[in-house]
Amino acid sequence: MKARVVWVEDSVMMGESGSGHGIVMDGPPEHGGRNLGVRPMEMLLLGMGGCTEFDVLSILRKSRQQVTRCVVELEAERAQQDPKVFTRIHAHFIVTGKGLSEKHVARAISLSAEKYCSASLMLGKSAEITHDYEIRDEQ
């Protein structure tokens, strides 16, 4: 896997993934940024959310669960001193579907957290990561 980050100006950077996708990153005005894009640490949090959601959906599909929507709401705390690593991350899953099994949803989240989500497992080296979920039935 490769990636490239090019400094544009001030605190603005353009990230390009090995698959050719780009994203603007920037810092807050108090650090010379213009607030044009996500912060690099926000990217890490978003990456974890995308990674675990991908796993959960994949596991639920294999279990023949009829998922119609899945949202992961993430909340993180960072250390007060440099390096300001994540110290706590909470992921709240909202899984919507038809006749979803709570057992299957709980199992999918657990498997992602403990076995499959590379981003969660990596960030878990410095942060306490917790999960919970709610299931919404779509009539």
What do you see in this structure?
InterPro entries: KH_dom-like_a/b, OsmC/Ohr_fam, OsmC/Ohrsf. This is Peroxiredoxin. It comes from Candidatus Thiodiazotropha endolucinida. It holds the Pfam family OsmC. The protein is α+β, with helices and mostly antiparallel strands and 139 residues long. It has two domains: 1-38, N-terminal domain of TfIIb, CATH 2.20.25; 40-137, GMP Synthetase, Chain A, domain 3 (2-Layer Sandwich). Helices cover 32% and strands 38% of the residues. It contains three helices and six strands. It has helices at 40-62, 102-116, 118-123, and strands spanning 3-9, 12-17, 22-25, 66-78, 86-98, 128-137. Strands 1-2-3 form a three-stranded antiparallel sheet, with no helix packed on it. It has a three-stranded mixed sheet with strand order 4-5-6, with helices on one face. Strand 4 and strand 5 form a beta hairpin. Helix 1 (40-62) crosses helix 2 (102-116). The longest helix has 23 residues, at 40-62.
